[in-house]
Specification:
Elements (H helix, E strand, L loop, with lengths): L3 E4 L2 E4 L6 H14 L11 H9 L5 H10 L3 H17 L1 E2 L1 H10 L1 H4 L6 H16 L5 E2 L9 H7 L7 H9 L7 H21 L3 H9 L1
Parallel strand pairs: 3-4
Antiparallel strand pairs: 1-2
Helix pairs in contact: 2-3, 4-5
Length: 209
């Protein structure tokens, strides 16, 4: 999720109570409290964001993502994606690719497409909370946490050698172990979905909570 970055044998981690996503949520709430959001109406937001992001992992990438929201065509393209989902009554790989194309920084650079998948799953969940049911044809985001949870529940197994490696070092996304674990999480949640007739995105959300 980009919540930690390894540089010169030092790990810069962004977390609150052990959670990177919660840290990001608090940061966004803090921006709201300082009247820095919406970015579109704040002409000096770039200067403010540079200061607010300087101690965070991947500050340049995060700055670029934030500044997307100043662009009118970016907001319009997001609305078009939303309208397509509601019209077709489903979320699929075509929608996923369109979202990635709209926001390449953060989405396209992720080999697992985790963040783009998560964004669409969260939108599906939001619609579900409003009693708008759409078909979600996407796999779960290949998160590094879900394999650990599935292992705890004996849905997948992780051998002792792999556990030892994971405990002592941060592996890059292209590492074989990372790819196998994340693939196991996708297959595990798909199997649970088929077995219990529950949408995969709801299983993923429940496991993560």
């Amino acid at each position: 999720g980009g919540y930690f970055q390894k540089t010169n044998n030092h790990i810069n981690q962004w977390e609150i109570n052990g959670s990177g996503s919660y840290a990001l949520q608090c940061w966004i709430q803090d921006l709201h409290s300082q009247n820095l959001i919406p970015f579109k109406t704040n002409k000096n937001i770039k200067k403010d964001l540079i200061s607010l992001l300087k101690d965070k992992p991947f500050p340049n990438q995060r700055l670029k993502i934030c500044l997307y929201f100043q662009k009118e065509n970016f907001i319009q393209k997001l609305k078009e994606i939303k309208n397509q989902i509601l019209k077709e009554n489903e979320v699929n790989f075509d929608i996923l690719q369109k979202l990635i194309n709209v926001c390449p920084t953060g989405f396209a650079e992720d080999p697992f497409k985790k963040k783009a998948l998560l964004a669409l799953h969260m939108f599906t969940g939001y619609l579900y909370s409003k009693n708008i049911l759409i078909e979600n044809k996407l796999p779960i985001p290949a998160d590094y946490q879900i394999p650990r949870i599935l292992s705890y529940h004996n849905v997948i197994s992780i051998n002792d050698t792999t556990k030892a490696i994971l405990q002592k070092e941060i592996l890059p996304g292209e590492h074989k172990i990372v790819q196998e674990l994340r693939a196991a999480a996708v297959i595990g949640c798909h199997t649970l979905s088929q077995t219990y007739n529950i949408p995969e995105y709801l299983i993923d959300a429940k496991l993560f909570m």
